[in-house]
Amino acid sequence: MEDQSRRQFLQNAGLASLTSVSGITSGPERNKELFVQHIFFYLKEPNNAQHEAQLLEGLHKLAKSSYIQFAHIGKPAHTTGSDIVRDYSVSWMCFFKNIIEEEIFKSHKIYHDFIAGYAHLWERMVIYDSVGPRKVG
Questions:
Q1: Model pTM score
Q2: Is residue 105 predicted with pLDDT exceeding 50?
Q3: Environment class of 42 (CB within 10 Å of its CB; exposed 0-12, middle 13-18, buried 19+)
């Protein structure tokens, strides 16, 4: 079986499993819109460089998932402005082909290993999800 068709088969099988156990629907709008997730991590010890390095290590591992189209890992920028929020430790922004890909991603071992191995480092995280067209303009 060709790699791409094997991947498509596994993806469809995963989606079928998710749909059967979680009630996920796969309407056309869920396939067409780009899905972006931006997570802000607040470390329990924000000044602990070792904990920050561990979280960054975990996010870099997570970014290798084939379901993620693009990932950006960052820290607060030194910019000015009264409306700029800089109280988080690390940000993680990732782009998925669609919301279904993100839901499949969250069912995989790499995601569960990340949560199990690194969740003890943060006291909270804030998640922003958005959907929209693949191209603007």
A1: 0.77
A2: yes
A3: middle
